[in-house]
Amino acid sequence: MKSARIAEEAAELYVNGLAIESVAKKLNVSYRTARKAIYSKGVVPRDPSARLVGRTRPDKRKPVLEVQV
């Protein structure tokens, strides 16, 4: 079935780091189709704001532990 193949490929691409938009373009499907296919395989969506925490707001920056040798 075509939808099962798309779901498998979409989930694999997403887990390997591609964004949903990139997955949709690579598989030549709509964003909505790619998103539904990824979620249908039980893949947990990434938090889109997690990559920005500590980068744009100094007050949200996580402390960096330094190791002394």
List the helices and strands and how they pair.
Layout (H helix, E strand, L loop, with lengths): L1 H14 L4 H8 L3 H10 L29
Helix pairs in contact: 1-2, 1-3, 2-3
3D architecture notes:
This protein is mostly helical and 69 residues long. The chain has a domain at 2-48. The protein contains 3 helices and no strands. Helix 1 crosses helix 2, helix 1 (2-15) crosses helix 3 and helix 2 packs across helix 3.
Distance between the termini: 57 Å
| Counted beta strands | 0
Shape: elongated
Q: Approximately how much helix is present in the residues? A: 40-55%
Low-confidence regions: none
Number of helices: 3
Task: Note the run of SSEs as H and E.
Answer: HHH
Structural class of the secondary elements?
mainly alpha
Mind telling me the C-alpha Rg? 17 Å
Mean pLDDT: 83
Biggest sheet features: none
Would you summarize the structure shown here?
By secondary structure, the chain is mainly alpha-helical.
Please name the defining characteristics of this protein.
elongated, 0% strand, mainly alpha, 3 helices
